[in-house]
């Protein structure tokens, strides 16, 4: 079995690698060549931790595996990342464990790649202003992946905890772009693309705050009960997701579908747009909304790429197992 330590990942996988892996696996899902299995996520009754598994099989790429891990809110005080995850890959022909890959940085990269894929395929081509709602650990990755796509000239941001906004300002500066902290009303009035990446359990961005033509990537809601935008916004928008089953149960769409504001069948999986099987934005006035819940196949795709690079460069650690 090969081990790719967390510390090696940054040198092995770039944002471009993550983007390509995630875009390709979304398309494979749409063609029926890759499947995610039901997610397990449980409170373990210790350390306030949420622990679970996301697994799947990409038949096109022959990648079988599981990401195990979760959220340990007390970790920060111990100098560790609150989100902890490890990807295990298995030989699809024999079931033997083939690799163990550090999953923390990969999770941030694949999550940012997911919203970037949605921006690339759904936002207006002339989008210039990126609006960030959220200023936690993931927000910097999200901003970098969006700006990499090109065309953005300015970043605006809002966060429920204003003291965290420095992260957005610093990230925008590192990308050579001006940053301005705004109210949510002003952010909605100015942004062409909005990324929400908070751990909110109540709507922050309201339907009336978003103007026609905006693309919104809702990336923070990945658990039952979480919510970042008003459910009525989904009724105003063309709604897309990574995987419909997750979107309606633990994603942003859980609220709009639960309230009967939109039908689950009206939500299009982004892979279908990537693969040319379904239309994306249909007019410059459409509001498009992407519900990115985070699927196993994203984790497996980036882990498989990291493993291949680690083998090429001789940094994978081999153990008899
Ligand atoms: P973080 O703890 O570093 O930052 C939390 C963010 O949420 C900050 O912007 C903070 O101000 C805000 N926040 C905290 N408590 C809040 C509350 N009660 N109400 C409203 N906002 C609140 O977290 P992070 O690592 O940046 O992750 C942000 C979110 O993204 C989390 O919900 C996480 O589960 C989710 N996430 C989603 C995916 C995916 O694939 N969709 C992947 C990774 C993380």
Summarize the structure.
This protein is an alpha/beta fold. It has helices at residues 6-12, 15-30, 104-122, 137-148, 166-174, 184-190, 231-236, 244-250, 253-258, 270-274, 296-313; strands at 2-4, 34-36, 40-43, 50-58, 63-71, 83-90, 97-102, 129-133, 154-158, 179-181, 193-196, 201-205, 215-218, 227-229, 238-241, 268-269, 288-291, 317-318.
Which superfamily, in CATH terms, is the homologous superfamily of the largest domain? NAD(P)-binding Rossmann-like Domain
CATH class descriptor of the largest domain: Alpha Beta
Cα end-to-end separation: 6 Å
Number of domains: 2
Low-confidence stretches: none
Gross morphology is: globular
What's the number of extended β-strand segments?
Answer: 18
Give the amount of beta strand, in percent.
25-35%
Mean pLDDT: 97
Share in helix: 25-40%
Supply Rg: 19 Å
| CATH architectural group of the largest domain | 3-Layer(aba) Sandwich
Write the H/E string, N to C.
EHHEEEEEEHEHEHEHEEEEHEHHEHEHE
Ligands bound, unique = nicotinamide-adenine-dinucleotide
The structural class is alpha/beta
CATH topology of the largest domain: Rossmann fold
Please give the largest β-sheet: 8 strands, mixed
Number of H- or I-type helical stretches: 11
Explain this structure to me?
By secondary structure, this protein is an alpha/beta fold. The protein has two domains: 2-107 and 297-318, ornithine cyclodeaminase, domain 1, CATH 3.30.1780.10; 123-294, NAD(P)-binding Rossmann-like Domain (Rossmann fold), CATH 3.40.50. It has helices at 6-12, 15-30, 104-122, 137-148, 166-174, 184-190, 231-236, 244-250, 253-258, 270-274, 296-313; strands at residues 2-4, 34-36, 40-43, 50-58, 63-71, 83-90, 97-102, 129-133, 154-158, 179-181, 193-196, 201-205, 215-218, 227-229, 238-241, 268-269, 288-291, 317-318. Strands 1, 2, 3, 4, 5, 6, 7 and 18 form an eight-stranded mixed beta sheet that branches. Helix 2 (15-30) packs across helix 3, helix 3 (104-122) crosses helix 11 (296-313) and helix 4 packs parallel to helix 5. The longest helix has 19 residues, at 104-122. The radius of gyration is 19 Å and the shape is globular. The N and C termini lie close together (6 Å). The relative contact order is 0.19. The model has no long low-confidence stretch (mean pLDDT 97). The structure holds nicotinamide-adenine-dinucleotide. Residues 83, 107, 111, 134-139, 159-161, 164, 197-200, 219-220, 222, 292-294 line the site of nicotinamide-adenine-dinucleotide.
């Amino acid at each position: 079995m090969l081990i790719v330590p967390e510390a090696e990942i940054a040198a092995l996988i770039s944002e471009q690698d993550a983007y390509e892996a995630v875009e390709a696996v979304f398309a494979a899902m749409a063609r029926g060549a890759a499947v995610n299995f039901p997610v397990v996520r449980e409170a373990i009754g210790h350390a306030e931790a949420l622990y679970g598994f996301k697994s799947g099989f990409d038949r096109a790429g022959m990648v079988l595996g599981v990401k195990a891990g979760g959220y340990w809110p007390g970790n920060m005080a111990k100098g560790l990342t609150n989100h902890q995850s490890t990807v295990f890959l298995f030989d699809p022909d024999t079931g033997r464990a083939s690799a163990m890959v550090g999953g923390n940085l990969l999770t941030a990269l694949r999550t940012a790649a997911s919203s970037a894929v949605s921006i690339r395929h759904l936002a207006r081509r002339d989008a210039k202003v990126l609006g960030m709602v959220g200023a936690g650990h993931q927000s910097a990755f999200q901003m970098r992946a969006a700006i990499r796509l090109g065309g953005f000239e300015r970043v605006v941001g809002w966060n429920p905890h204003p003291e965290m906004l420095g992260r957005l300002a610093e990230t925008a500066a590192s990308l050579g772009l001006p940053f301005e902290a705004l109210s949510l009303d002003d952010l909605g009035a100015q942004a062409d693309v909005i990324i929400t990446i908070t751990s909110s359990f109540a709507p922050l961005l309201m339907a009336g705050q978003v103007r026609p033509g905006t693309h919104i990537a809702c990336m923070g809601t990945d658990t039952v009960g979480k919510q970042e935008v008003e459910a009525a916004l989904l009724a105003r928008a063309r709604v897309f997701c990574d995987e419909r089953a997750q979107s309606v149960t633990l994603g942003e769409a859980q609220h709009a579908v639960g309230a009967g504001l939109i039908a689950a069948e009206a939500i299009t999986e982004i892979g279908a747009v990537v693969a040319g099987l379904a239309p994306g934005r249909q007019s410059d006035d459409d509001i498009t909304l992407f519900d990115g819940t985070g699927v196993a196949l994203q984790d497996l795709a980036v882990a498989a790429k990291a493993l291949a690079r680690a083998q090429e460069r001789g940094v994978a650690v081999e153990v008899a197992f």
